[in-house]
Amino acid sequence: METSSSSGEWTRMSTRRLIQFLARKLFVFCLLSLLILSVLLFVRVKYNTIPESSGLFRASGLQTFFKHNINCSAIYDLDPVEVGKSLTIRRKKMVEDKDESLMSLTGNCSFFTQVRGYDDVCISEEERDFPLAYSLVVHKNAWMVERLIRATYSPNNIYCIHYDQKSSAHFVSAMQGLSHCLPNVFIASKREAVFYASISRLKADLNCLSDLLRSEVKWKYVVNLCGQDFPLKSNIELVSELRELNGSNMLETSRPSQLKRQRFTFHYELKDISFEYQKLPVKTQQAKSPPPHGIEMFIGNAYFVLSREFVLHLNSSDVVRDFLAWSEDTYSPDEHFWATVVRLPGVPGEVPRSLPDITDLMSKTRLVKWHYLEESLYPPCTGEHVRSVCIFGAAEMHWLLNYGHWFANKFDPKVDPILIQCLEEKLEEKRRLFQAKTILTCRKG
C-alpha cells in the first residue's frame, strides 16, 4: 500500500511539474508573440505616417517622379475616406521632382522610352489618320512637361517644345533630352525670352506654329498648352471629337468690355519691375491708332484648337501680318489676337462676327476655375488659388472629367500630386476602353 501511495504521490508531483513547465513555456510564447505583435504594430503606425507609402518610382537606380499608394477609382467616386487620405498626403512635405532626374533618365533613351511606356504604343486607325500637333510653351518643372506629353502621346502626333530663354540649364537639358529620345518631339527653332502679358508669349506659339507647318507630319489640328495644363481626354477621345469640328476652330472669342478695351487703345511699354515677372507691359497715355484694315476687336484667352487650314492662312495673310505688327505694343496681345483673327471674314473655320460671344465655358479648349465665379458657375476649388485661378485638388477629378472640356488649367504637383497621378490613371483606363472597340496597330513609338 505504501508503495502504491508513494507511486501515486510521485505521479501527482510529476503532473504538477509538467503543468508548471508547460505554463512557463506558454507564458514565454505568449510574451514573445505579444512583443512581435507590438513591433509589427509600431512599424505599421510609423510607416503609415509617411504619405501613404508615397515614394520615388525608381527604375534601375534612376529616379523618376513620386508615386502614391492611393485608390484613384475611389477618388473619382468621391469616397470620403480616400479623399481624406489625399488631403493627408497633401499636408506632408513632398520630395520635389527634380529636373536633373529627367535629364539623367533621358541620357539612356531606350531605357527612358521603356520605363515611361513610349516604346510600344498602340493606336487605332482613326488616330493614325488624324494626327495632332502640339505647341508647348514651357519654362519650368520638366517632369510636368514630360507627363503632359505622355498623357497626350501618340506616335503619329507631333510636339513642338518652346522653352523660355530664361529657363534653367537643367530644365533646358531635360527638354533637349525629351527631343532626343522621342522622334516626334522637337525644340522650337527660334525661342523667346517670355515676359508676362507681352508680345513674347504670342511669338513663342507663332514660332512653334511655323515649325509645325514645316514638319513632314500632316497634322489636322494644333493645340497649344503650357506647363500647368493637363488633358481631360485620351488621344482617341480627342481625335473623335475633333473630327466632328469638320474644319472649324475651337477657342474663346467675345466682345471686349470697356476696361479690356484699354489693353489695345493705349500704347504699352515693357518695363523692369521688382516683381516675380521681372518685366511687365506698362500703360502710357499715348493713344494707339485703330486696328488695321478696319478689324473689329474681340477678346479671349491665349489657348486654342486650330485647324491646319486656318494656320496655313495665318502664315500667308497680309492682313494677319499687319494686325500682328499693330499688336506689338498692346497688353497681353495673345488674349485678343486669336479671338479676333478667327472672326475675320473668309478665314478657314471662321466664327462670323454676327454670332454671339463664345465664352471660356462654351469653348471646350481649356477649363479654368476663377475664384470669383465659384459656387455660381462651378463648384468651389479644393486645391489652392493663385491670382484668382484655382490650382485643382483631387476632389475635383470627377467634375473635371465630366464637364466636357478637352484640357484644364492649373495643375501643380506641389499643391496636389494625387490629382495628376489619378488623371493619368483614368486617362489610360479610358484609352484602353475606347481602343478595345477598334482595330489597333502597335509599333515602336
Shape annotation = globular
Briefly note the CATH topology name: Spore Coat Polysaccharide Biosynthesis Protein SpsA, Chain A
The tally of beta strands, per DSSP, is 15
Number of domain units: 1
Biggest beta sheet attributes: 5 strands, mixed
Radius of gyration, in Å, reads 30 Å
N- and C-termini, Cα separation: 98 Å
Helicity, as a percent range: 40-55%
Structural class: alpha/beta
Word description of this protein:
Helix 4 (99-105) packs parallel to helix 8. The chain starts with a helix and ends with a strand. It is globular and about 60 Å long. Helices cover 43% and strands 16% of the residues. It has 445 residues and is an alpha/beta fold. It is built from 16 helices and 15 strands. The chain has helices at 2-48, 72-76, 80-91, 99-105, 109-115, 125-128, 142-152, 169-181, 199-214, 235-243, 258-265, 308-316, 318-326, 334-341, 397-403, 417-435; strands spanning 55-59, 62-67, 121-124, 132-138, 158-163, 185-187, 221-226, 229-231, 266-272, 279-287, 305-307, 384-386, 389-391, 407-409, 440-443. It has a five-stranded mixed beta sheet with strand order 6-5-4-7-11, sandwiched between helices. Strands 1-2 form a two-stranded antiparallel sheet. It has a two-stranded antiparallel sheet with strand order 3-15. A hairpin with a 6-residue loop joins strand 9 (266-272) and strand 10. It has a single domain (122-444), classed as Alpha-Beta Complex (Spore Coat Polysaccharide Biosynthesis Protein SpsA, Chain A). This is Beta-1,3-galactosyl-O-glycosyl-glycoprotein beta-1,6-N-acetylglucosaminyltransferase 4. It is a single-pass type II membrane protein. Belongs to the glycosyltransferase 14 family. Pathway: Protein modification; protein glycosylation. It comes from Austrofundulus limnaeus (Annual killifish).
